Amino acid sequence: MLEIVTLEDIDRADVLTKIAEPLSFPLSSEILEIIHEMKEILVDPGGLGIAAPQVNYSNRLFVFHISEKAAAFRREQTDPMAVTVVINPTFEPVGDQIFSDWEGCLSVSDEMGYVDRFRTIRCVWFDKAGTKIEKTLTGLAARIFQHETDHLNGKLIKDLFRPDLPHGSIKDMMPIRLQELRDMGKVVD
């Protein structure tokens, strides 16, 4: 079973800061097995996305989804989204509207905070069969896509925290996040 690499894992953490290699088609049986295991890891801890470097593979691959629970706890209207496999992704912003919202990361295990992202992006990627997908994503889906693409480019959320926006340890930030949800009328208790 694959294990999530964290910054604290000194022997393997360098994979998190390298630019990942593109994949070619047809995918190998090893890559198909990695995709299968990444899907399992994704839904187990309640994550929204996981990139190959986070499981110690330096390939341009990630898996993401939006559960009903995750959709319910966002500031913007968000619809659930099925598990999606993304290979060799690229994106460009649609307009220049930036939105700041909370992000955490399975590989940055003790930090969370506000991160600026483009609200809407035009994406291109390939599915595991090698079919080219072109889609415009907005809101949380766009945020996750950008977050996971950052992993493929060796960037982590801690690199994107701004000094003027809340960020820090999960222990310190979670009360702030929960109060914001209560203020929005979201039931969190």
The CATH first-level class comes to Alpha Beta
Shape: globular
Give, in order, the helices and strands. HEEHEEEEEHEH
Percentage of residues in strands: 25-35%
What would you call the quaternary organization?
single chain
Full CATH superfamily name? Peptide deformylase
> What strand order characterises the main sheet?
1-2-3-6-7
Overall number of strands: 8
The radius of gyration is 16 Å
Largest sheet: 5 strands, antiparallel
Question: Could you list the spans in which at least 5 consecutive residues all have pLDDT below 50?
Answer: none
CATH architecture: Alpha-Beta Complex
Kindly report the average pLDDT value.
91
**Domain module tally:** 1
Q: Considering DSSP H and I runs of 4 or more, what fraction of the residues is helical? A: 25-40%
Which class do the helix and strand fractions yield? Answer: alpha+beta
SS summary, helix count? 4
Report what the structure shows.
Helices cover 25% and strands 31% of the residues. By secondary structure, the chain is an alpha+beta fold. It has one domain: Peptide deformylase (Peptide Deformylase). A five-stranded antiparallel sheet has the order 1-2-3-6-7. A three-stranded antiparallel sheet has the order 4-5-8. A hairpin with a 5-residue loop joins strand 6 and strand 7. The termini are far apart.
Features:
189 residues; alpha+beta; Peptide Deformylase; five-stranded antiparallel sheet; 4 helices; globular
